[in-house]
Amino acid sequence: MGRCTSYASPTSVPAFEPPETILSREIAWHGMCDGVGSRNSFLVASERLTVSLAAKRGYRAFSSRYFNGHRSMTQNNTTLITGASSGIGRELAIQFAKGGNDVVLVARSEDKLRELASEIETQSGQRATVITSDLSHADAVNQLCNELTQRSITIDTLVNNAGFGALGKFSELSADRQTDMVMVNVVALTRLTRQLLPGMLQRNRGGVLNVGSIAAYQAGPNMAVYYATKAYVLSFTEALREELSGTELHVTCLEPGPTETGFGEDSGMGKLDVFSSTAMTAKDVALAGYEGFLKNEDIVIPGWKNRLMVTSAGFLPRFATRKLVGRMQSA
């Protein structure tokens, strides 16, 4: 079809308009001008969608503060961070300490935790407590909570960051490694939240920040269990947020994409071009998650490329997204 001249595509979007509405309209408009379904129409529409998403995030932050209240999350609080020895967890611990929180650092590596604790106490003046724990063990959460009780530590905010993945076919990866993945990514996250939540509710302060992944939005051939665990984290967080909507607790899911951490090397993902070419720094991801949690945002997806990927995936049938992911993750 020829170029359209009788209709002007909007250049600004109301903050409350859903992004899927914007993308659908823009694809339709540019499709009429450049050929329905053309790749160019999708790209132009995607660019315009970033404007909508920025407005939507601003509106969401405002509505969270207006309807749910915005209580100080940084005064006399203690935050527990799992997987705190490196990567996003380490950077989140630093952010919470900078914000005035005492922190409890949990991971397997005692040396790395003590190094981080020293750095936090020196730079922020906040107290940093080290507790070593392997959350893949069935009794790890109970032991962790018992130690908190013995040390008379009250947790106001829980950051469930610990997790890992593995690249490869389900039938070929170790059964034990994949079971441990479920234990850390799902079971420990669930049990620790359940153990600490009643105290938060009683005090009516603090909250839960769960670290998921943009893997939550589609199936992941060649990382089947990892993608499934992250889908659980997202669904669980959204449901928990709704259950706690009448309280002062903040509940947020941080959904990063590829990030410059040890995850890429440990999982095998680091050797894939799609991972290395789009990776964000752990510091930038953590800052986005921390700020989103303070604003009580429901979901935080750092980086416009990651947000565009998630939004675009919603317009494709599931069979198409899983085939695409499977090709990208061919070991």
SSE blueprint:
Blueprint: H1 19-34, H2 39-68, E1 78-82, H3 87-98, E2 102-107, H4 110-124, E3 128-132, H5 140-150, E4 157-160, H6 175-203, E5 207-211, H7 224-243, E6 250-254, E7 259-260, H8 263-267, H9 273-276, E8 280-281, H10 282-294, E9 299-300, H11 304-313, H12 318-328
Parallel strand pairs: 1-2, 1-4, 2-3, 4-5, 5-6, 6-9, 7-8
Helix pairs in contact: 1-2, 2-11, 3-4, 3-10, 5-6, 6-7
Structural write-up:
- By secondary structure, the protein is an alpha/beta fold.
- It is built from twelve helices and nine strands.
- It has helices at residues 19-34, 39-68, 87-98, 110-124, 140-150, 175-203, 224-243, 263-267, 273-276, 282-294, 304-313, 318-328, and strands spanning 78-82, 102-107, 128-132, 157-160, 207-211, 250-254, 259-260, 280-281, 299-300.
- A seven-stranded parallel beta sheet has the order 3-2-1-4-5-6-9, sandwiched between helices. Strands 7-8 form a two-stranded parallel ribbon.
- β2 (102-107), α4 (110-124) and β3 (128-132) form a beta-alpha-beta unit.
- The N and C termini lie far apart (43 Å).
- Residues 1-16, 26-46 and 50-71 have low confidence and may be disordered.
